[in-house]
Structures
1.
Amino acid sequence: MKKSSAKKGPAKAGGSDFYRLRLYIAGQTPNSVTAIANLKKICEEKLKGKYRIEVVDLLEKPQLAKGDQIIAIPTLVRRLPPPVKKIIGNLSKTESVMVGLDLQPVR
Amino acid sequence: MPRAKPTPKVARTSLAKVPTGIKGLDEVTGGGLPRGRVTLVCGRAGCGKSLLAMEFLMHGAVQYGEPGVCMNFEETEDKLIANVASLGFDLRDLTKRKKLLVDYVSIERNQIAETGEYNLDGLFIRLAHAVKAIKAKRVVLDSVEALFSGIADSSILRSELSRLFRWLEDQHLTAIVTGEAGADTLTRHGLEEYVADCVISLDHRVTEQISTRRLRIVKYRGTSHGTDEYPFLIDEDGISVVPITSLVLTHKALTDRVSTGIAALDEMMEGKGFFRGSSVLVTGTAGTGKSSLAANFASAACARGERCLYFTFEESPSQILRNMRSVGLGLERWVKNGLLHFNAMRPTSTGLEGHLAIIHRLISQLRPGIVVIDPITNLVSASGSYDIKSMLVRLVDYLKMEEITSMFTNLTFAGDPQERTAAAVSSLMDTWIVLRDSKPNGRPRRELYVLKSRGMAHSREARELIVSKRGLELGIVVEGHPQATTVESPSAVVADG
C-alpha cells in the first residue's frame, strides 16, 4: 500500500493482465495530488501486484505532452494492456475510472 | 503630496499592428491585426479561414521575422505541409530553421472518460513549450472549437478558453483563432464572446453558379474600419483582398495628357487627348469599332513606351491580335516586348468581385500606365444581383489612385437607349465617347462623337470614324450638335427615358 510501483506477483510486465499506467500532472496542484492518491488507492484495491504507475509532471517534461496527445490535466493513460485508453480528471469518480480503464468489479 | 509632473495623456495613436502580409488585408485593417491580441477569424467550412491563418504565420516567419506556432486541431503536420506547399511555402524548411512550429492536437471525439475535476493545463503547457522553443511571436489556433467535441464539460472548457486567450495576451502573442460559423451566430460555440479586439468574418457565396468570396471586419477595437464587405480571391498566391474603399475621393486630378491614339480625336479634345489617370467610356452598338478604338489606344501607349494591361472578356488574345492586324495594328511586337499584356477571362468564370480581385492583382503586379477593359458589358452578365456600379466605383477609384488611364468599352443594342449603361456607369467616367452606325443616303458609315469629357473644352462635333488597313482615322464632320449633349446625372437619364 505504500509503493506506487508493484512488480511482485505472478504477472510479468507486458503480460496480458499487467497494467502500465501513466498519470500526467502539471505541478503539485490539488487535482494532481488528489489524482495520485485516488489512483494508488484504486490500483491497490483492484490491481494489486499487477500494475505500475508512472507519474509525469509536464512542468518538468513539457515535451512529453505531445506524444500522448495530452490536453487536460490530470490525464491517466492506460498504456498496457492494449488498447491505449485515456481518462481525464482527478479520478475521484471511482466508477468512471473503473469503466474508463476497463476494470472488472472485484471478483 | 505634491503633484508629480503631469502624466502624459494616453497617446491617441492608433493601436500597434502586426502586418499579415496578405495582399489587401493590411490595407483594409489599417496595418494588420492588433499586436499582442487575439483575432477571431470565422466563417463556414471552406471559406478560407485556415488559409488566412496559415498565411499570417508564413508571412510572419518569412517576411517579418516573427516566428509562429500553429496549433492545429484538424489537420496533421503532413497535410498542412502539402496545403501550404501549393502556395509556395516550404513548411518543412521553415520548421527546420525554427521559424515555424506545427503542433497537431488530436482530439478523440467524445471518447474521453471524465472522472472528476480537471483543467486544460496540458494544452497550455504544449503551447507554451512550442512558443518557447522557437521564440514565437505569432500563434494560430485552428480550430480550437474542436475541443468542444472532446471535452464534455463545457463550463470547464469555456472558462479554460477564456484563460487561454488571456494567456496569449499576457505573453504578448499576436494570435488568430478560427471558428466555424454557427446558424445565427458568428461562431457555433460563441468564441466571439472571448475575443474583444478583432473579429473578421469570411463568406463564400454561390449565386447563379458564380462563386464569390467576401471578407468583412465585424469588429476592430480602436481602429476605424470600413463595414463593407471586401471581395477576396484565393489563387495560387493565396488570399488577396480587394482593398478599395470608396469612402473618400482623395486621388488628385492630373493635368498631363495621354493621346487617344488618333490624332484627329486628340484634336477634338483640346489637341491633347485624355487626362492621365482619367477613365474613358466607349459605347456603341455591335461592329462600330469599340475594340478597334481601344486597341488603337493601347497600341499608341505601347509606342510611347507605356505598359498596357488589356482585359478581354469576349475574345481570346489571338483573336484580338488577328482582328487588329486587319485594321493595321500590329500588336504582336508589343506583346513580345512585354509592354502589352493581355488577360482573357470568361465573364462567368468567377463573380464580379472575383474579376475585380484578379484585375486588382494584375494591376498591382504589372503597374501599367494604361488599362483597357473590353467590354464591361460582359461583366454585367456576371454581376447577378450585385450592383455593377459599386464594383466599378471601386475599380475606377483604384485606377485613379494609381494614376492609370483606363478605357472601358460597352456594347449597346440598337433601339436600346444607351442611357441604360449611362445610368449605371457614366457618372463615374470622365470621358464618354459614343460610336454609332448610320446610313446617310444608304451608305453605311461609323460615326464618333465625344459626349462628355470633364475638365476640358471638347468638340461636340460628330465625325466619321474610318477603320481601314491603315488604321483608325476620323473623317468628315457629320453633325454639329449630336442629339444627346452632356448627360451627367442619372436622374436626368431617367427623366429622358
2.
Amino acid sequence: MDNGASSYLRFLSGDKDGLADIIRNYRDGLVLYINSIVGNIIAAEEIMEDTFVKLYVDKPKFKGKSSFKTWLYSIARFTAIDYIRKHPSDLYTQLEAASGVADNADLEKRAIKNEEKRALHKALQKLKPEYEQALYLTYFEDFSNRETADIMKKTEKQIRDLLYHARKALKTELDKEGFVYEKL
Amino acid sequence: MKSYDETIASVIAKGDSIIEHRRLRAARIRRTTAAVSGLCAAAVIGLGIHNLKDVDPSPKPFEMSSHDIEISETVSTEPATDAADIVSPTRAPEGVSRENSHNTRTVPGPPAARENSTAAVKQNDHSNTVKPYVPQQESADDNIADTHSPVNGVNAPTPVNTMPAETQVQVTVTTADQNAVIDTERRIYMKKFTSMLTALSLSALSMPFTSTAAELILPPEIDPNNTFGYTNHSVYLFEDEIIDYTKFQNGELETDVNGDGKFDLLDCYEVFTIQDEEVHLNPDVNLSITEDDLKDYENLLNYYLITHDITADIVTPEYYNDPYFTDNVYVDAKHSIWHQYYKEDEQFIKAMNEMFAYRICGSLTLLPNGYTLFEDMMDKGILDLDFDSDGTLTPADMNIFVTYMKDREENVDRYSIPTYLNTFQSYHESYRVFTKYLRDKINESTDMVHVFGDYTWAEQDVLPEDQFNKCTDALNALAEYDFFTDYRYYYNNEPLLIQAGLLKSLVDSNNVFFSDYHGYSLGGNEDLDSCCEFFFPDLIFKNMEMLPEYSEASYYDTILPGGESEVTANVMDRYSKKIGFKELIPDNELGSHTLAQRAYDQFVEDVANGLRKAPDLNNDGVMNSLDLLWTGEMYSSYDYQEYPGSDKTKFTPEQWENIKTNCDFNNNGISGDHDDYYIADIYIINEFLIKNPDDISTQTLVSIFESMDEEANQQNLAIMESADIDRSGDANCDEETGLADALLILQNNANSEKYPLSVTGNFNADIYMTGDGITPLDALQIQKIDANVPIE
C-alpha cells in the first residue's frame, strides 16, 4: 500500500477522483486527529475540509520523504494551527456550545471499531492535548515515533519523552476509570 | 457529520472558489504591471524620440538631418481624472479638529495635556518620542499623477498622461527641399509612428489598472497591488487591514478618537480600553465611538504603528502607567472609564497597560515597520545584533543568530503551562497570572533557556563564546520587549492553543502565535521568528546591497563552518525572492540610481561587452522587436508557477526552459522573474525597436498591433489626424505616391471593407483638405501630383 500517494499522483495528473479517494480514506482519522488539537469536533471537520482544499488548490508536492499519510497529517496540523490563530474566538464559542458531542461520538464509533480503544480514546481526551496528540498518532493511527515526530514537528527524542509522560498520565486516567490497557 | 460525497463536493466547491479568486488576483497584478511597463515604455520611447533630434548632423540617405528639417514638437497633456483620484491623498491633515458629535467634548486632564491639546501640531511629552507620520502632501492643483504611480510604489515618469484620449501632438515640419521631404518624411514618420504606436498600445494597457486602483483611495505607502505594503519591507499587509487603514486615511473613520485635535497613541489607548466588554456593554457609558464602529477601530492601533516610527519606550508597559494615559482616557467629560471602573484597581490598570504594550509588540511582528523598533533599540544600545563585532550588520551576523536559534531549538524542551491556569474563569485574572508566571520564569535566570524547562544547553561548539553570549544578550533584550514571546510560546504551542478557550483574550490580542504561522504562511521556516525572517534582513539590507551569494549555503559555510548555513541561505533566498530586489530600492523610482536601474545598466554593459546575451524570449536565436510580444507572457508565466492552477504558460517547453535558464537579467539568481521582465521590456524597446524601425520584426510588430487593437488604432489615427504634417498620399504604403494610391482611395471610398486602408495608409491618403477624412478629392489631388498639374 502506498497510503494514498498513487491517488494523489492521479489527482495531480488531473483526475479529481484521486482526491475523492484520499478524502474517503483519510477523512475520519483526520477529523479525530484535528479534534485532538483544537478540542472541537465542529471546527475539526471544517479544518479537515480546509486541509483537502489545500491539496486541491495548491497541489503541494509530495516528495516521498515520508509516507503520504504522515505528510497529510502534517498539513492537517498546520491547517489546524492556522485555524486556531485565525478563529480563536469562534473556537471558544463553539467550544462553549459543545454542540459537536453527538458528532464526535458518532465519528468515534465509526472510526474506532475496537471498544477497548474507544474507551482509551475517551480517556485520551482528558489528557493534556499534546499527550493526546502523540498517543493518538501512535496508538490509533499506528504512526512510528519518527513519523509522529515529523507530524508534530518535534525531534524523535522529544516524542519519546512525550510518550513516556503521556503514557503515565493516561495510565493514571484509566486507573481512575477502572480500565486496564495492557500496552501501557 | 457530512457524508463522504458531501465532503468531497464541499472541498471541490471551496477549492474552485479559491482558484477563481487567485486567477482574478493574478490577472489584476498582470494588468497593473503591464500598465507600469507601458508607462515606462512610453517614457523610454519618448526619450528615444527626443534623442533622435541629435542623432547625427551629417545628412545621410534615409536618415533624419537637422540641416534639412526642423521639428518643433509640443506635447500637451492633461492628467487623467481618475488617475488623479487614485493617488490624491484625501486624508485630512493630522491635527485638524473633527467636526462631529465628539467635538462637544472637553478634554480635561493634566495641565500639560490641556496645553498640548490647544495646539494641534504641538507634541506632548510622550508623543515627542514618536515621530509623527507626515503624509506626502500635495496641493490640490498639483499634478500628482506625473510624480507617483501607486503601482508597486514605482514612480512612473509622466505616466497616465500618455493616455491616448488626453494626448495631443502637434508636429510641424518645414522642408527646404521638397524631394528630400518625401524620403525623409517617411523616415521620420516611420520612426514616430512605430514608437508612438508601440507606446500607445502599451499605455492602453494601463486602463484596466486605472479602473482597478480607483476602487481604493490609498496613500502611496499602502498599495493593494503591492502585498508588501511598504515599498522596502517584506512583511505582508492583509487586504482587510488595508481596507481599514484606508478608512482612517481618507477620513471616513475619525482617528482623533478623544477629540483633542490630534491622532496619537492616546487615541489608540482609548479605543483599547473601550474594547473592554465591561465598558462598551455598559449602557451608562457614553462611548466616544459607537459599539457598531468598534470593530472598524480594531486596526486603529496598527494604523498608528504603520504610520509612525516606533520607539522602544512605547512597547514597555511602564510607559502607560503614566497618569497622562490613565487620566486622559475619557468617554466623555464626566465619565472617565478609569474613574468609573478601574481607578481604584491599580493592579488592574497595570495589567491593562501591560496588555496594551504587548499588543503593540505583537502587532509589530506583523507590521512592515516593526523593524523600526529594532533600529531604535540598537540606537539606544539596548540591542546589539552585530554578533561578529565587525562594526556593521551583515548576513554573517544573521547566520550567527540563526545558528544560535536553531541550536537552542535542538536542545531545549517545552515546559508545561501550569494547570492551575485552567481554574481561572476571568480572562483578566488568568492573563495577569500567566504574564506573571512567564516574567517570573524569565527573571529566575539570566539565560532564556531556563524558561523552557529543565534542559540545559548541549555543549556549544559552533559559535565562539563571545558570539554565543551576544546572541543570548540579544535574545534576552528582545524578550524584554516581548519579541520572541511568540517564540517562547511556540514551544508551548499545543498546550497554549488548547487552552485558547480559557486564554482566548490573550489570543484575541494577536500578540502570540504568529511567529511560525507567519513563516509557514509565507512558505518560510516555521521555527524562526519574524525577527529572523524579516526584520533582521530588513536591517541588514537597509545599508547594503543584496547579492545572489547571500542565498547560497556555501557562502556561510566559509564564514562559520558547522553553522546553520542552509537555514540562513534559505531565509535569505525567501527574503530576496519576496522582495524581488526592487523592494530594496529606496524610493522605487526607475531612472534614478536604484538597484533596478543599476541592474539594467549592468545588463546593457554586459551585453555590449559580449558577456551576456540579449533577451531572446521567444528563443528564436535572435533578439528583435517580436520578443516584445513575449514579455507579457514571461511576466504572467512567473505568476502561474507561483500560483499553481491559475493558468498555464503559453511558452513551448523549449521556450520555457530558455526563460527559466537564460533570462536572469538582473542577476538575482531567479531566471524569468518580474524584474527580468522589466529589464527585458525596456531593453528590447531601447536597444532594438527604436534603433531598427525598418526591421521586418518591427514592421511585423506594428502590423500585429494594428490588427490587435482597433480602438487604439482609432485613437492613434485621431491623434495623427490632428497633427499638422504634410501628407504624402502614399495610401498603399509602398513608399511611392502614384495612380495606384489614387485608385486605392477611390476603391476604399466605394467599398471600405473590401479595400481597407491601413492606419498608415489612411493617414497618408488625407492629402487634400487634411483633416476632413478620405474623400475622392484626395484621389484627385494625387492624380494631379502624378500628372505634374500645378496645385492651388
